[in-house]
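Quick check before the chapter quiz. The format below is the same one you will see on the exam, so make sure you can read both the input and the output lines.
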Amino acid sequence: MEKTLELFSQIFMDLLEDEKTKSVSSYIPSSELFNTLDLSLAKAPMSEVDFEKVIRELVFATTRTATSGFFNQLFGGRNEKAILGDLLAVMLNNSMYTYKAAGAQIGVEATVLRNVCDIIGWDENSGGTFAAGGSMTNFMSMLMARDRVVSDARNVGLSDKLTVYTSEVSHYSIPKNAAFCGIGRDNVRYVKADKFGKLRLDSLQKLIEEDLVNGFKPTLLNLTAGTTVLGAFDSIKDFIDICKKHNIWVHLDGAYCGSVLFSEKYKHLIDGVELVDSFSFNAHKMIGTPLSCSLILVRDKVHLYDSFSNDASYLYQTDHDDFNLGKTSLQCGRRNDALKFWTLWRSVGTIGLEAIIDVQFNLADVAREYIRNNSDYTLYSYDDSISICFNYKDISPVALCTLLYEHSTLLVGYGSHENVEFIRFVTINAQNNPQDILNFFATLEQFVEENVALFPSLKDQITG
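Here is the expected output.
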């Protein structure tokens, strides 16, 4: 084990050194992957020398998500204290379903969940659990909503026609989850969003009224704190009264930006979070823990037990339910995702978590200011978002993002809203600084200038 850890340490340190001068790994077309890297498995063991060579090649060829060249997904960066917690979790290898199997680590998870509930403003009846990702926490909220509306659905299945409501720009997991839990994709109602990407109350009211007339049971409203493209925040308080009137479960999907909960400056973006039935956020996004670290919190933890508890005498043999977390989890075998969040939180305090959030918004302000002061850019997003959506010189965003990727220059993605396509640049890596943001634009501009021939629209402008 010591020798293997030494190998890990050396490879990792070499990677860190290489990242200083090469923020994007060399592009390997998917069609060439298996010809470029030796990923084969064999009957005979490898020599230590060959094994190290293969591992190094694989590591150095892998997408680099912690550098100042990665702005492609809704995660990024590398927090050393969180990494320490994740490495310890791997070494300890506890499964978080019983106190007997996880011991003191149960206390770690319970402490994190209790503190988050306290910050939300919920009482001791609240609770939560960790799950594999935002899609799963959304699924769990839908199951709890279903079970509250149709209490015997867990035993006899569904005969009622249930409907769920979500923004037309919400996460793709909502219709998938409706299929999984028996509600059905066709019974997902897509509520219109305004030009800022926020859910419209008038559209929701109309859909609910139509469903009631047609014999459906409105079951769940999925709100979003940080939509995938524009990073928009739905106005929670606008929807509480209508949901109470019709006994509709309100879930706030904060997978992307729900972590603003920890910032006094930006918590207003989820004003009313204490009024929802369930709330989820991914600490591996804005908080910066390693993947994955997703939390779902409920105002009344009885719903976790009602929907997910199942007796198993071979498993639950000691201690009471509060220490046997398998009773409130969708999963049985479950890795310890709480420890990395706890080690980070313990090391920097709540003030430190707040600083992580605030840095990301500050970086977004730097990006927006640069775009607004440069006539070659068109801005499509708004303040109070860490998604900066823009276009450059009327170049196709799809073409530009693809070419930057294929030339191992920058990793950034694209999106669309109201039939307009644009580059979506996210400032979610709190290890970046303002100069890193300015360097991104400088690199993009230099790439276009040096590769005019790759962009037909620009070439025509120049020759014309």
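If your answer matched, good. The chain has a mean pLDDT of 95.
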